[in-house]
Design goal:
transmembrane helix, Fatty acid desaturase, 352 residues, 20 helices, 1% strand, mainly alpha, membrane, 62% helix, FA_desaturase_dom, transmembrane, globular, two-stranded parallel sheet
């Protein structure tokens, strides 16, 4: 939304794409309801996640390692979905308060601030799937791909299968995150170093506290945190594709309700990119009210649940390697700049 996207989330320059003036009026009407104004669903979500997670640790011995691990995996994955909601300006209009609810390192592997900054950059829809501008992109430039070792290409292809994305996908993310941390410390990037020191300090305190209840640091990292990160890969598997129209780059996944609840309706990903400030509990409602229009807008990039991805790509790799038209566009732009031609944007993003 033009107002909510800029006022509520003042660290992001995001605009909204409405399908019509009627939809704009409908969302404005919903935003005036007591449920939306008070953000009660998000407050309840925060309470459930925090209470459940800490209770899972405190009552670890009574729950046992199997039930306790399952509970903490689900709550840690759910917490990552909550962090995404906090980034987009919920449940308060104050960024620092939202950040407080997302700073504890239940997810372990990355600081909240790092996720926030990279995700805001990802919401520049004109750059979606851009190999050098979209931090959540799985595509590469032809030049990058050319110089990759054959073993690395094999790893990438394996990670583009559904099973591979869930098993080695988190490891690749962790490696990239640690590399970015190393660059920050080596270059003397003070804000990034400060962010990492706070994250690591909180993580140390959290793991030390958990050890008192019988959960070792190694156990939490390998048996709980890694599988939780793997679980989030279900949602992000083929969430975006390369397409000329930016609206056709984001999927609409009509997933079952357990997945929708775990991922806070981000399966309706085009709706989220069109309306980045829309709260999670409004995404499904807005999608269902405009289902046909959204499916047309997505270029029929529609999936009937995550089992469809598993059936098609369990051990078959997505064709996500070299970006299909990025290098060609680069050459066109370079040629026009050399000829002194000023190129206007051929497409205006629906949502940034």
């Amino acid at each position: 939304m033009p107002t909510a996207g800029t006022k509520r989330n003042n660290h992001a320059t995001s605009t909204a794409h409405y399908l019509s003036d009627q939809q704009r009026a409908r969302i404005k009407q919903l935003s005036r309801s007591w449920l939306w104004r008070l953000e009660l669903p998000t407050w309840v979500l925060i309470g459930v996640i925090y209470t459940g997670w800490f209770a899972g640790v405190i009552y670890w011995q009574q729950l046992g390692p199997v039930l306790g691990s399952v509970l903490l995996i689900l709550l840690s994955a759910w917490y990552m979905s909550l962090q995404h909601e906090l980034i987009h300006g919920h449940p308060t209009r104050w960024r620092w308060i939202n950040q407080l609810f997302g700073t504890l390192p239940f997810a372990v592997w990355y600081p909240y601030g790092l996720y926030r900054d990279s995700h805001i950059q990802h919401h520049r829809d004109e750059d979606l799937t851009h190999p050098e501008k979209d931090p959540e992109c799985y595509y590469y430039t032809a030049t990058q791909w050319q110089y990759f070792h054959i073993l690395l290409k094999g790893v990438i292809r394996l990670s583009n299968t559904f099973v591979g994305r869930l098993t080695i996908g988190p490891l690749l993310d962790i490696i990239n995150t640690l590399r970015s941390a190393g660059r920050a410390f080596m270059s003397g990037d003070r804000p990034a170093i400060f962010m990492w020191l706070i994250h690591l300090g909180l993580l140390y305190g959290l793991l030390y506290w958990m050890a008192g209840y019988g959960i070792s640091a190694v156990f939490y990292l390998l048996v709980i945190s890694y599988p939780a990160l793997s679980l989030t890969k279900v949602r992000s598997f083929f969430e975006h594709r390369a397409a000329q129209e930016s609206s056709a780059r984001s999927v609409l996944n009509e997933a079952a309700w357990p997945w929708r609840l775990l991922f806070l309706n981000l399966n309706y990903h085009l709706v989220h990119h069109d309306l980045p400030a829309l709260p999670w509990y409004g995404l499904r409602q807005i999608y269902l009210e405009n289902r046909v229009q959204y499916q047309q807008r997505s270029g029929q990039f529609v999936v009937n649940g995550y089992t469809q991805w598993f059936d098609a790509f369990a051990f078959t790799a997505l064709e996500i390697e070299v970006h299909p038209f990025y290098d060609c566009e680069n050459k066109t732009v370079a040629a026009e700049e050399r000829s002194g031609v000023t190129k206007s944007s051929h497409h205006r993003s629906a949502s940034t």
